[in-house]
Amino acid sequence: MNFITPLFLGFVSAVIGIIPPGLINMTAAKVNLKEGKRNAYWFVLGAVTIIFFQVYVAIFFARVINARPDIILLLREIGFVLFALVTIYFLFIAKKPKIKKAKIGKKSKKKRFFLGMLLSGLNFFPIPYYVFVSITLASYQLFSFMNSSILTFVSGVVLGSFLVFYCYIAFFQKVESKAHSLLKNMNLIIGSITGLISIVTLINILEYYWG
Residue by residue, what is the 3-state secondary structure of the chain? Predict the structure, then answer.
């Protein structure tokens, strides 16, 4: 397997996972407005440092799970139920989300690197997300759990994460003005994506039992 594929897949996975407005990317933009790009980039560097280790931990768990086909099947069945419930929730139950304003201390102009690490460390979403992503890609022969492939994939995640954070820093005014309209349709977008994943997962389960 060439290094381009895992690099690209890691990059795309990171962009998809981070691009919705959230605490970390909105905080990066706020730091830029209040303290300048230098502090904002230090904040981002701290955030992506934690993301780097989170992805490695996720792939470690994924590699262990991938060695057990019975566990993979069980996870697919659990995943199907969870994604189906998430789809129902976002399409029919959830209220329209609102942007949470990040609070930046007026006097705090240092240690943005550690603030980025802290906020990123408090976000546990990347671990189950990249466990699912890596196992799914491996099942389609698009990713292997070789050390070189893992390092390349993680590098792609770091690059993708940094790009999204950079876009929030560089184009925050435009993002902020359009974020509200984006969030109005966010439930539909998320519900559609999880619905598609549910269908694909169900097909894989049916193929296992009756294929």
Answer: CCCHHHHHHHHHHHHHHHCCCCHHHHHHHHHHHHHCHHHHHHHHHHHHHHHHHHHHHHHHHHHHHHCCHHHHHHHHHHHHHHHHHHHHHHHHHCCCCCCCCCCCCCCCCCCHHHHHHHHHHCCCCHHHHHHHHHHHHHHCCCCCCCHHHHHHHHHHHHHHHHHHHHHHHHCHHHHHHHHHHHHHCHHHHHHHHHHHHHHHHHHHHHHHHHC
